[in-house]
């Protein structure tokens, strides 16, 4: 959580003061920085955290080019800040091969494997990581999601019950329970878990995203607009008839690297097909490039569906067909 991450930052800063050639300390300092952003478990601006992290991680690798912590941190940077999944995959695979027991490297490596569509290998790594470190919250979160996606929701709940024996009052664990309940259609239970999680950790970006999805599914748009991060709240504002506000928010979120699904859906619903395609083609050279940046990851591909419909409405049959092929492969 935020408090433990901030404590870890303090400790590694003390280590750097003692030894300014400590490559692992530089790496861990900036990994923690990237986790306490507004998109993670804190309030630090995302762009600022990325700039600080890249500089320090490069410095750590200058001190020790084979440092697994720094390679893993750089992999996470490319994943979260550059949206370069191939580069992230290469760095994380290298970090994991250098230190197979490095939990963060394995957690993020499995995430990239899942992004690439290799869910079975991702599941294998997540289960192995859980056996070594059952209290690593990010891996637990990813593992329970994988179980649910693969139709094993009972297994996901049993996993969380094991963790609860040690972390009964954890905001992240409550959020995990909420995610399972949401994905299995138990919306009232999911909302209860997310409300309790948010009371404990109001800045948790992960929990706010899933809470927003739950409120969307139950059509509680006003609360969704208040709770969800900007790129999700865009759709709530659209549902409330606040279209211009929604589109401004969605455009700003997309410009900072957030998922454009709800922004594209809002443009589509308001009949702004030209604007959707202009936004798409100004940021991504091709549909394949867009798909590499925002792969389906097992949840469908709402963005590509919106793109396909916009091209159809504009009479661009060639691009419509191309988008539909990618949509069918999702």
- SS summary, helix count: 20
Question: End-to-end distance, in Å?
Answer: 33 Å
Structural class: mainly alpha
Helix content: over 70%
Gross morphology: globular
Determine the strand fraction and express it as a percent band.
under 5%
pLDDT averaged residue by residue: 87
- List low-pLDDT spans: none
Q: Describe the sheet with the most strands.
A: none
The H-and-E topology, N to C, reads as HHHHHHHHHHHHHHHHHHHH
Describe the 3D structure.
The chain has helices spanning 2-18, 23-35, 46-63, 68-82, 85-98, 103-115, 119-132, 137-149, 153-164, 171-183, 187-200, 205-217, 221-227, 230-239, 243-255, 261-269, 273-283, 287-293, 302-313, 317-329. The mean pLDDT is 87. It has 20 helices and no strands. Helix 4 runs parallel beside helix 6, helix 14 packs parallel to helix 16 (261-269) and helix 19 packs antiparallel against helix 20. It has 330 residues and is mainly α. It is globular, with a radius of gyration of 20 Å.
Offer a quick outline of the entry.
The chain is mainly α and 330 residues long.
Give a quick set of tags describing it:
mainly alpha, globular, 330 residues
Reconstruct the topology from this structure.
Elements: H1 2-18, H2 23-35, H3 46-63, H4 68-82, H5 85-98, H6 103-115, H7 119-132, H8 137-149, H9 153-164, H10 171-183, H11 187-200, H12 205-217, H13 221-227, H14 230-239, H15 243-255, H16 261-269, H17 273-283, H18 287-293, H19 302-313, H20 317-329
């Amino acid at each position: 959580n935020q408090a433990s991450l901030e404590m870890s930052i303090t400790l590694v800063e003390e280590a750097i003061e003692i030894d300014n050639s400590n490559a692992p300390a530089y790496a861990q300092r900036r990994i923690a920085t990237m986790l306490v952003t507004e998109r993670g478990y804190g309030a630090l601006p995302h762009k600022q955290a990325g700039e600080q992290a890249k500089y320090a991680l490069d410095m750590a690798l200058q001190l020790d080019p084979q440092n697994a912590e720094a390679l893993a941190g750089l992999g996470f940077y490319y994943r979260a800040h550059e949206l370069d999944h191939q580069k992230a995959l290469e760095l994380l695979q290298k970090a994991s091969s250098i230190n197979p027991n490095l939990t963060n490297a394995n957690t993020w490596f499995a995430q990239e494997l899942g992004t690439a569509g290799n869910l079975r290998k991702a599941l294998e790594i997540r289960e192995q990581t859980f056996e070594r470190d059952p209290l690593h919250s990010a891996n637990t979160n990813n593992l329970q999601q994988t179980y649910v996606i693969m139709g094993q929701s009972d297994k996901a709940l049993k996993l969380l019950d094991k963790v609860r024996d040690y972390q009964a009052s954890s905001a992240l664990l409550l959020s995990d329970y909420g995610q399972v309940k949401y994905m299995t259609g138990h919306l009232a239970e999911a909302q209860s878990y997310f409300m309790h999680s948010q009371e404990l950790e109001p800045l948790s970006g992960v929990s706010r995203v899933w809470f927003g999805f739950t409120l969307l599914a139950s059509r509680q748009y006003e609360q969704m607009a208040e709770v969800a991060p900007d790129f999700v709240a865009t759709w709530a504002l659209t549902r409330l008839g606040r279209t211009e506000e929604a589109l401004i928010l969605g455009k700003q979120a997309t410009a900072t690297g957030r998922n454009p699904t709800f922004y594209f859906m809002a443009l589509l619903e308001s009949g702004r097909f030209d604007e959707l395609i202009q936004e798409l083609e100004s940021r991504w050279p091709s549909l394949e490039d867009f798909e590499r940046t925002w792969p389906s990851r097992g949840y469908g591909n709402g963005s590509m569906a919106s793109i396909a419909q916009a091209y159809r409405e504009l009479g661009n049959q060639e691009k419509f067909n191309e988008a539909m092929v990618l949509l069918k492969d999702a």
